[in-house]
């Protein structure tokens, strides 16, 4: 495991797990949304695809993402492992709602100084809405990719509960 994608729906814990795996395996961690949102007002970074290609060319990395469409195939072709957090909505939704509420109320800065605002809760791309609406489709697409011959060399670790993920993470301690 030297090039790892942590995939799942919004709010499944991809970033938290990717950071933990990064520390244990001493692999550089790259937050996909931070690379994508390059400036204020959630402005996409014009160098996003180029920068992601540069990182994906390196021998070791971990990304906390299924991958934005511009780089999805590239990441899946170059990864050697996909850690799939396939948790049910009853697990994911409280997580994403708590996170967004905390970010909104505390005005936390995320992704290059951007902040979640109350008005964002009413947009179609708010994390809580995308987590709910994309849950089934995201799972189906990850499953299809995991079985796709183009990505056959990939090792896919499929976790359906946080306890399964925690047990696996403990196996990485001391490596």
TrEMBL record:
InterPro entries given in the database record: Cytidylate_Kinase-2, P-loop_NTPase
Single GO MF annotation: kinase activity
Superkingdom as given in the UniProt entry: Bacteria
Signal peptide: none
Protein keywords: Kinase, Transferase
PANTHER family in the cross-refs: TOXIN, YALI0E33011P
Descriptive protein name: Adenylate kinase
Natural source organism: Streptomyces mauvecolor
């Amino acid at each position: 495991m030297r090039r790892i994608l942590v995939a799942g729906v919004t709010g499944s814990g991809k970033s938290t797990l990717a950071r933990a795996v990064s520390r244990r395996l001493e692999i550089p961690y790259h937050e996909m949304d931070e690379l994508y949102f390059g400036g204020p007002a959630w402005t996409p970074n014009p160098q996003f695809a180029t920068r992601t290609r540069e990182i994906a060319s390196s021998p070791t990395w971990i990304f906390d993402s299924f991958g934005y469409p511009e780089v999805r195939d590239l990441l899946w072709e170059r990864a050697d492992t996909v850690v799939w957090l396939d948790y049910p909505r009853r697990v994911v939704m409280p997580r994403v709602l708590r996170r967004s509420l905390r970010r909104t109320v505390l005005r936390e800065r995320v992704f290059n100084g951007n902040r979640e605002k109350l008005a964002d809760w009413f947009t179609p791309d708010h994390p809580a809405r995308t987590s709910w609406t994309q849950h089934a489709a995201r799972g189906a697409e990850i499953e299809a990719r995991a079985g796709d011959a183009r990505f056959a060399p990939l090792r896919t670790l499929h976790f359906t509960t946080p306890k399964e993920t925690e047990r696996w993470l403990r196996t990485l301690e001391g490596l």
